[in-house]
């Protein structure tokens, strides 16, 4: 199934040089990516702190498939997963430190931002011991004002290549009372997709949760990136330190369903021996709730702090491990060799579809190691969810799209201007007509090119065809309706940081700085290197009221718990209900 | 969740995924069909002519696809690859 099968490339030992950082002193050091006994490892040595070794992939064959390029007889590259992105102009001058220190962003960055992130607060109703963003653990309070947030939103939208999607993170973003209004601000600033990374707090509240969900949806929230570690209470007790959390999680699903949401992405942090056993459970849960769950993102845990080499080997889990585990727990139906592709696979396909559909492209020009994905869609004959690769021959479709994009990409920036040159404004109208007809014939070519590789007919094909014929953002995003996107995203930490990955990051944090500027940084460098320094520049003093706001042993606001107690026997609530009658 | 597809391992409920079926597959298919109908309706609002044209096109396309898949099976992999190459070249010609 691999596109390099039948060549000697997959049998050659893998080797490349890169740069990384020392996990102890955080200084930049040289690193090597090598193959050992069927696995891929990063090896590096710090003059001061010695040698470090960390597993990058548990499958050397799969890793090599995503890294080597296929060449034709003349030596021209005809296939590779490492893509060239388009970057916005740098925000900060270059300096000697370079990547990964000179963030802001610097001129070494190779990709534009596809997903912008804003930390709305570091307040949280949970107190997960591995989390970096927590008032209690940080000792300070972070919460940008509405003006600050608007400034960051404008920063990402006003660039030559604007970010199409925004994700609000935290802490727990929904503890902010003005969260629905913030969603509206994002839509007003032109973001096509507004997402919140949440444990579900605002949506699960017994009093007002459903109303909160409805308001968020009305004001522009599209998707919940919903923390979901499994279906067993015992798992949450291990990961979040809270008992009986499944009821809480189910209230989120139900309230969002009532509010008319149709896009929840379940996000599971995968740690060996803790949540890896839940992978199959989570997939089945998503399938059972397919009317509202659009995807699952598995995130192999990132490792922070000082740990020994032995501990490292016990805890480290890679994207390849997650994909293997999915194959195992789904009885081989979602297999590593046939179903999974690096996110970068669809760069040209995405650009071509966006161009033909007249929508902003989402650029997945990250590094091939960053993430892998597959789509499941329902088979009309067997009524079973199957990887989309069973509908189409993916490698052939992508190959066709790559060739076609190479030939038409100049049209994106240089539309036909034939009549305008000698007929002025009237000629411009004629040129619009010519461009419209040109795009129609390109759509027809593309559609026929894709459909020749169809393996089975069905509604999915019809949806794809209609999307191309009537391209707008609604059609494009509704393509995912009734399908399930599975992805595995491995964020970097100080042990496995690869500067080649960092330079290509497409997920960027934005922070409103006190001097009125906006500071932008790739996700992994923010969390590994910059967070403590940057947060101290924008931190507020934490008050006792903020410290005491939540009972993190049950994940609820103390004020809400008092109301519940009164409801169960107190007189005040009864009086309120009587007054309503 | 029925009892026959659940096992208990280390005190945790584990679903046995022998088939990736959803209990809501019929509703899902219906929802997908509705979505396609929604597009049709939106198109007809924009232009009745376009809508008729497109619906005819997609219906024809569906029938052609059925025939194509039957032919693919008859042709065999080697011949199919040659034909795909020719079609690719035709579709990319002149771009």
Task: Note down, in words, how this protein is organized.
By secondary structure, chain A is of the alpha/beta class. Chain A has 22 helices and 20 strands. In chain A, helix 4 packs parallel to helix 6 (209-219) and helix 15 runs antiparallel to helix 16 (459-469). Residues 571-581 of chain A have low confidence and may be disordered. Chain B contains three helices and two strands; from the N terminus they run ββααα. In chain B, strands 1-2 form a two-stranded antiparallel ribbon. In chain B, helix 1 (25-46) packs across helix 2. Chain B is flat and about 65 Å long. Chain B starts with 5 loop residues before the first strand and ends with a helix. The chains are: A alpha/beta (581), B mainly alpha (95). Chains A and B meet through helix 9, helix 14, helix 15 and helix 16 of A and strand 2, helix 1, helix 2 and helix 3 of B.
Key features of this structure:
heterodimer, A: 581 residues, alpha/beta, twelve-stranded mixed sheet, four-stranded antiparallel sheet, 22 helices, 20 strands, 39% helix, 19% strand, globular, disordered C terminus, B: 95 residues, mainly alpha, two-stranded antiparallel sheet, 3 helices, 69% helix, 8% strand
């Amino acid at each position: 199934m691999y596109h390099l099968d039948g060549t000697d490339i997959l049998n050659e030992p893998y080797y490349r040089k890169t740069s990384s950082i020392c996990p102890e002193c955080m200084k930049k050091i040289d690193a090597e990516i090598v193959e050992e006994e069927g696995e891929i490892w990063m090896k590096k040595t710090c003059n001061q702190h010695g040698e470090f070794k960390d597993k990058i992939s548990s499958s050397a064959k799969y890793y090599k498939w995503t890294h080597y390029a296929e060449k034709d007889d003349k030596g021209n590259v005809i296939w590779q997963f490492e893509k060239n992105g388009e970057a916005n102009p740098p925000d900060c001058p270059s300096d000697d430190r370079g990547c990964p220190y000179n963030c802001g962003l610097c001129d070494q960055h190779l990709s534009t931002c596809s997903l912008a992130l804003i930390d709305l607060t570091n307040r949280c109703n949970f107190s997960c011991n591995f989390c970096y963003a927590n008032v209690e653990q940080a000792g300070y309070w972070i919460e940008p004002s509405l003006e600050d947030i608007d400034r960051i939103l404008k920063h990402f939208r006003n660039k030559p290549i604007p970010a199409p999607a925004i994700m609000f993170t935290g802490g727990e973003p929904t503890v902010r009372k003005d969260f629905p209004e913030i969603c509206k601000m994002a839509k007003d600033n032109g973001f096509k997709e507004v997402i919140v990374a949440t444990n579900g707090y605002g949506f699960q509240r017994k009093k007002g949760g459903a109303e909160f969900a409805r308001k968020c949806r009305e004001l522009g929230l599209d998707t919940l990136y919903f923390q979901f570690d499994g279906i067993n209470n015992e798992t949450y007790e291990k990961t979040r330190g809270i008992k009986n959390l499944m009821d809480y999680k189910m209230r989120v699903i139900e309230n969002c369903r009532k509010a008319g949401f149709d896009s929840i992405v379940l996000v599971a942090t995968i740690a060996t021996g803790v949540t890896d056993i839940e992978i199959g459970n989570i997939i089945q849960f998503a399938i059972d709730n397919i009317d509202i769950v659009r995807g699952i993102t598995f995130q192999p845990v990132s490792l922070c702090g000082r740990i020994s080499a032995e501990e490292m080997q016990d805890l480290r889990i890679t994207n390849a491990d997650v994909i293997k585990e999915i194959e195992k727990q789904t009885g081989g139906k979602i297999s590593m060799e046939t179903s999974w592709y690096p996110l970068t696979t669809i760069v040209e396909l995405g650009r071509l579809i966006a161009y033909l559909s007249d929508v902003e492209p989402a650029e997945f020009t990250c590094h091939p190691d960053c993430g892998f994905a597959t789509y499941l869609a329902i088979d009309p004959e067997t009524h079973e969810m199957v990887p989309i690769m069973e509908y189409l021959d993916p490698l052939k479709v992508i190959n066709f799209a790559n060739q076609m994009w190479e030939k038409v990409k100049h049209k994106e920036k240089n539309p036909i201007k034939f009549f305008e040159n000698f007929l002025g404004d009237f000629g411009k109208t004629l040129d619009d007509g010519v461009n419209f007809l040109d795009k129609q014939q390109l759509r027809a070519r593309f559609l026929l090119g894709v459909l020749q590789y169809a393996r089975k007919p069905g509604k999915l094909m019809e949806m794809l065809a209609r999307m191309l014929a009537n391209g707008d953002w609604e059609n494009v995003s509704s393509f995912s309706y009734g399908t399930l996107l599975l992805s595995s995203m491995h964020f970097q930490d100080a042990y496995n940081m690869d500067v080649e990955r960092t330079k290509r990051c497409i997920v960027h944090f934005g922070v409103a700085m006190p001097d009125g500027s906006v500071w932008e940084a790739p996700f992994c460098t923010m969390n590994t290197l910059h967070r403590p320094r940057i947060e101290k520049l924008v931190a507020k003093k934490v008050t006792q009221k903020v410290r005491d706001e939540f009972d993190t042993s049950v994940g609820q606001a103390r004020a809400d718990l008092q109301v519940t107690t009164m409801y169960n026997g107190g007189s005040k609530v009864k009086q309120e209900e009587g007054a309503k009658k | 969740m029925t009892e026959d597809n659940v096992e208990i391992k280390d005190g945790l409920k584990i679903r046995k995924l022998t088939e990736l079926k959803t209990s809501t597959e019929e509703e899902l298919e219906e929802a997908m069909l509705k979505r396609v109908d929604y597009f049709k309706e939106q198109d007809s609002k924009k232009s009745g002519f376009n809508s008729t044209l497109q619906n005819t096109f997609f219906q024809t396309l569906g029938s052609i696809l059925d025939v194509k898949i039957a032919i693919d099976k008859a042709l065999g992999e080697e011949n199919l690859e040659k034909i795909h190459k020719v079609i690719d070249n035709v579709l990319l010609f002149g771009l």
